Amino acid sequence: MSTVFIALQTNEDTRPIVEAIVQDNPDAIVNEAPAMVKIDADGKLVIRRETIEELIGRSYDLQELQINLITMSGNLDQTDDEMTLYWNA
Amino acid sequence: MDMQVAKKKLGLKERYAVMTRGLDWVPSYQKMEDIYPYMSYEGIKIHDWDKWEDPFRLTMDAYWKYQAEKERKLYAVLDAFNQNNGHLNVTDARYINTVKLFVSGISPLEYVAHRGFAHAGRQFPGAGPRVACLMQSLDEIRHAQTQVHAVANYNKYYNGMHDFHHAHDRVWFLSVPKSFFDDAITAGPFEFMVSIGFSFEYVLTNLLFVPFVSGAAYNGDMGTMTFGFSAQSDEARHMTLGLEVIKFILEQDPDNLPIVQRWIDKWTWRGYRVLTLVAMMMDYMLPKRTMSWKEAWEIYFEENGGALFKDLARYGITMPKCAEQIALEKDHLSHQAWSTFYNYAAAANFHTWVPDEDEMAWLSAKYPDSYDKYYRPRMEYWREQAAKGNRFYNKTLPMLCQTCQIPMVFTEPGDPTKICYREVDYKESKYHFCSDHCKAIFEHEPEKYVQAWLPVHQIYQGNCFPEGTDPTVEGFDPLAAVLDYYHFESGRDNLDFEGSEDQKNFDAWRGMATKNV
Amino acid sequence: MHIDLRTVTIKPLRHTFDNIARRLGADKPATRYQEGTLDMQQTANFHYRPTWDPDHQIYDASRTAIKMADWYAFKDPRQFYYGAYTMARAKQQDTAEANFDFVENRNLADTLPADVRATVLELLVPLRHVAWGSNMNNASICAYSYGTAFSQPGIYQAMDQLGIAQYLTRVGLLLGGVESLEVAKTSWMEGDAWQGLRRYVEDCMVIKDPVELFVAQNVALDGLLYPLVYETIVDDVLSAKGGTPVAMLTQFMTDWFTETKRWTDATMKTAAAESDENKAILAKWVIQWRDRAAAALLPVARIALNERTDALVAEVVQQFDARLIKSGVPL
Questions:
Q1: Angle between helices B96-105 and B107-123 (to 10 degrees)
Q2: Domain topology for C80-326
Q3: What number does CATH give the domain A3-86?
Q4: pTM across the whole model
Q5: Is the Cβ pair B66, A36 closer than 8 Å?
Q6: CA distance C210 to chain B (A)
Q7: Beta pairing, strands A82-86 & A44-48
Q8: Contact A72 B57 (CB under 8 A)
Q9: CB C45 to CB B41 under 8 A?
């Protein structure tokens, strides 16, 4: 499978998001740069609202990700509960 | 009516559907083809606009909320940057030349994207793509404006960007990015979406923004880094739109495939040629390098784009053929481009220089198969000549490629010692090209590309002198007249970095900031 | 205590970009509105003609009958560049959200008298389609007009109208659920009261002159619709009948119109002041589209106003005329 990725700005807001992504995608690889954190995964990456909410202790709208998003790769499917990046081949 | 019955809470997808396509209707007082007049002439067949899948489902309330937060953060950083003379924190003053290149070459394109997406966002009969395009139109004016606002502070202290709007419409090398976007916005709405939405935003934008922005971060330019990352966060939405457009068009009718494939081939090549400027910026203009152009191309195009084209294979789309030639050029592109600008530094709005010994060592390491063999000797020779007071400025005008408008400086695929020339005879005239790909693009639409406003032709025809210039007078200096027409101040905006006003001022100001004088 | 905050003072070479300095007549600091607006649109040496409109350049002042020596004579009194625009709207959105929450959490929708609720569903909800039409028309204005000073507010107006269409959708969802949207759409497509207005909106969609479209949509239609529906019907007539919660749900529209008409007025004033030819063309457009808009709005207003309709619509038209005359358009 090809690699999908998401890159976020490195800051207080994104720290728990990255943690949640790692929890939900144990095989994902986190590349840290001073200003940017890029997370690669093989074929598919899932970001779950509930996991983030557990870590930050408040309700979270996945659209809030927009504020700190830098770039991504893959097809996107977004619902209230999950944001999924994937390749079909 | 019993309103106590709990109203069903709509999920994101259903809610977004009633907030967008639910608003639309099939007109009956005016004909569809009069309201959407540009939908058929490109030959794309769409049978059901409702099959469109919305990628990000942002309603306006959420859009305003999140975008305002981004803007607040961005302008807070810009204000702090300005108040603290942030420009003195960059690695060295050579870096600022990348900012000049960016504001005169790229920012005006963001503006064209704004108008182009307003046009596309008006013309598609589907409510979903229309809303997505209009949101992108709104984002693009954001990018144009935040870039101008970020660069405004540099303009106060450094030369070369003081009249960048004027320059963009006139200067020889800026016709490369300008003609690229003019080409896109004058194409039909579907081709515009494939050119900008897909080829540029999805396939190439990472190559523009990520290296440029991390380059800015690495070189201490907090202002540029912040607008860059902030703009890029909108790009994620735009990239997704570009990908959905391609999938949607291909799923609608098998006849669309050859048209879309031709557009992808064309626009990947057109976009790549524009990125020549980025290649030389990465390899030569950033005092602290992040990665080489070649490495960036391998990660963001070969690896990433490879995954994308593999995914699109199920629709019959293949990797653009030009990828093979680009792979052959990746060891040469930035060196050939920088050499060209080194030559023409008298007619550019930024400074050039010969890389120092450390930088040459870096280039040798990154380009083991090409730098020492083909380019280092040339640059060492220039360095020797400059040391003897013979800094060379080329004042004859180069032949330009009719399609990409870059001077014909690129070499034959596979032979870096031979300049590549192609030509076509069309209606009594001869047209010249830098490559087979630019030639093929011309041959498909000659009536479009014969219109190109080629700066060198225009100069020779006398169209690039200030009004009232008499070129027949004794001692007429054509280059000086052209620089006047460009609004360049000769001796301040152009020539070598060594000895420039930028260099002197930066050293003096930095001295004031770091020493007691 | 005295704190001496020291930063290095260096003298700038210039205060703004040359194009701005030329327009301001001096090299002095410029506002972000000026730097983000003036000369942003390309003006010279276009490479190719649009394949979709070969008779014009990419940006072409001759797409309209209105003539300006300088299209940057226009100025948005709100000084909206993107940042100022989104921050202003985000603030209004906060208020709107709080209002929706207030009405929802206290079940105020259920306390509405039945006739008020019926009027809202019948009158307000179909207007979401009118706002959607305005979204398209303002996209046209932005895409095909000349000069950023004129075109830029077009995209803001387009997105505002999309936002309004979405607020009206939420009003429908809150008061009548998804079905109310379907009922409203059927009225819009087939109901006698709405056909004049729908024809008006569809006719606007084929206007090629961006300034005429600006007059038809933003000056004439909105100039009558907003005072009539939001100021007269919602804030006055319905509130008197116990419909105050409705006014909370449409506060965005009321505030928005008060704000945007400053821009439409300033734009008309600048265009009219340019020449007698412009005055005559604008007057012709205003009269033609005003009369059509007033006629189209009559049956719609009747849903809420009954026998008072003619008098109240006439009053709104009178106020409209006074506004336009003040902007220098001879009516």
A1: 30
A2: Ribonucleotide Reductase, subunit A (1.10.620)
A3: 3.90.56.10
A4: 0.95
A5: no
A6: 12
A7: antiparallel
A8: no
A9: no
